[in-house]
């Protein structure tokens, strides 16, 4: 384990940023039949499947077409409680809507680290096409537009990232109870993604069985560093 962690550290350009979060709410997966339709400009720009030139790359990258979106909202302190209430009301509605192609996998607010910040994780099972259609679905719904306008006034800043999962992780699942989560981000040296993924895949089984439980590890495709 120590040797593996040493190899992981060697490929880092910058050590981890770490924030401790508590859940706003969690949701169970809802199965929605997805209309096939045509491909969007977003899908054409970014291929649905990443072609891996080597076996190592193939093991590192996921075989699924899943795309994750991580939303980060910096909330004005005076609106934090109101923001939580609105999010808990509207996000499950979006999740359950047959018109919306994504699913919310979890929502958290920060307890230590960055303050007055909320983090939401969405999953799109039909890849980048679902990301494009999600915006169309929200803007086409009057009630959702009103929710977004109200939320805008509560935020100091907001950003999002599009991410892909590593092949050695499954999808994150809701957990019972009031849990505490740690969110980390690592900046890797250029060209070390494969080495990082292969070594981390070896390290994960060694961590299991302790008090903490891993949720997921994702690699950023688009968006600012967190």
From TrEMBL:
It comes from the Eukaryota. SUPFAM superfamilies: Dimeric alpha+beta barrel. InterPro entries: Dimeric_a/b-barrel (IPR011008), NIPSNAP (IPR012577), NipSnap_domain (IPR051557). Residues 68-168, 181-209 form the NIPSNAP domain. One of its GO terms (biological process) is mitophagy. PANTHER family: NIPSNAP-RELATED (PTHR21017), PROTEIN NIPSNAP (PTHR21017:SF17). Belongs to the NipSnap family. This is Protein NipSnap homolog 1-like isoform X2. It comes from Branchiostoma floridae. The lineage of its organism: Eukaryota, Metazoa, Chordata, Cephalochordata, Leptocardii. The gene is LOC118426005.
């Amino acid at each position: 384990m120590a040797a593996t962690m040493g190899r992981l550290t060697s490929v880092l350009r910058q050590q981890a940023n770490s924030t401790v979060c508590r859940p706003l709410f969690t949701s169970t997966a809802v199965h929605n039949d997805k209309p096939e339709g045509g491909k969007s400009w977003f899908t054409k720009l970014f291929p649905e499947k990443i072609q891996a030139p080597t076996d190592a790359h193939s093991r590192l990258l996921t075989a699924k077409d899943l795309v994750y979106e991580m939303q980060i909202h910096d909330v004005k302190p005076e609106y934090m409680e109101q923001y939580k209430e609105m999010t808990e009301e509207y996000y499950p509605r979006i999740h359950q809507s047959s018109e919306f192609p994504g699913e919310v996998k979890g929502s958290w607010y920060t307890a230590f680290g960055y303050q007055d910040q909320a983090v939401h994780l969405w999953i799109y099972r039909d890849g980048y096409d679902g990301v494009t259609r999600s915006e169309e679905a929200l803007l086409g719904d009057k009630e959702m537009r009103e929710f977004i306008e109200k939320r805008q006034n509560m935020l100091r800043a907001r950003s999002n990232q599009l991410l892909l999962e590593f092949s050695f992780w499954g999808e994150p699942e809701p957990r019972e109870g009031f849990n505490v989560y740690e969110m980390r981000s690592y900046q890797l040296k250029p060209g070390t993604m494969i080495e990082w993924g292969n070594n981390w895949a070896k390290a994960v089984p060694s961590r299991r069985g302790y008090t903490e439980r891993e949720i997921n590890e994702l690699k950023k495709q688009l968006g600012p560093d967190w």
